[in-house]
Structures are given as C-alpha cells and as structure tokens.
Amino acid sequence: MAGHREDFILMMVGGITIDPSTKMPIVVLKDPDNKLNLPIWIGPLEATAMATELEGIKPQRPMTHDLLRNLLTEFGATVESAEITELRENTYFARIQVKSREGRAIEIDSRPSDAIALALRTKSPIYVAKKVLEASSELHESQGEQPQTSDQNLAGVSRDKWSEILERMAPEDFKYKM
Q1: Class assignment of domain 2-171?
Q2: Concatenated DSSP letters for 5-74?
Q3: pTM score, whole prediction
Q4: Domain coordinates of the chain in residue numbers?
Q5: pLDDT tens digits, residue range 9-21?
Q6: How far apart are CA 5 and CA 173, in angstroms?
Q7: Is 152 helix (H, G, I), strand (E, B) or coil?
Q8: How does pLDDT run across 123-149, given as a tens digit for each residue?
Q9: What is the DSSP-derived secondary structure letter of residue 140?
C-alpha cells in the first residue's frame, strides 16, 4: 500500500451541489490548495449520507454508513483511507483501505460515494489517483449522452464548461459547504 501514494493526490469534500440539468447530486472533491476539483455524480441517498455528516446531524438510528463504521470498529478494524482509483466508461471506481485488528491491510472494492461517506465518518483521508483527474479533464463534449446512474461523471461537460458552471455557482448553491 505504501508504495503507490505518489500516484494519488489527497483531496477533500469541497461541497455537495445539484446538477441543474439532471437534478442529480454532485459531490465535489478538491485538493487542499483549491487548484483541482473532481465532480462525481452520486445518488440522493449517498448525498444525504454525506450531508448529514458534513452538517454534524446525528440521525436517531444508524444509517448505512454509520453501520459500516460501527461494524468495523467492533471488529477492531480501522479505515486507513478511501481511494478513487479509476474512471472507466464514465464510471468512477474506488476502494477502501482497511487495517484489521491484527494489522493486516485489506482493500475493499467500493463505489466512490460509499467510500467518501465512510471516510467522512471515520475522519479518514480521501485520495484520488492522478490518472483519474487526468481522465476526468479529458471528458470532452463529443461524448454527448447524459449518465443514467449514480457515481458517473457527466459526459459532455468538458473541463472548461465545468469551471464555468462552478464559477457561476454562488456559494449558497453549494448546499453543504465544508
């Protein structure tokens, strides 16, 4: 696990907003210097899971990601990090790095939205592969069609278009600001 960190960039949740055209929530990851951002289209449930944590709202009963965290804690495992590892056919892939009670490193395949929601709950770092950032900026308008499911990038929004959307957004458009 230690060797590949240089291929990853540490990022944090910058906010959650709504895509005006698809009405799908978007989680925006950004680097600490605010130079890079990565929009990931997510489902409403995952958006709610992130928002409650960002807003410090404690649900009365444990929601899915609270349950995951509680299970891991009970078994003495710790979440080391969440990693957004790949962008393939407009779909992001992620994995959660877990350390078992015995100190064994375990990689668990995950949707980015779940990995991010869990990382927020366990105060774990979120890393994005450099190749994902490069690939996301190469999604050109030529691709056309809109994504149908969550955890997909919006094909057809080029880097410039995306910057333009972000610039047009007032801070209050970011529903949940960190």
Answers
A1: alpha beta
A2: GGGEEEEEEEEEEE-TTT--EEEEEE-TTS--EEEEE--HHHHHHHHHHHTT---SS--HHHHHHHHHHH
A3: 0.77
A4: 2-171
A5: 999 999 999 988 8
A6: 33
A7: strand
A8: 999 999 999 998 887 653 334 444 444
A9: -
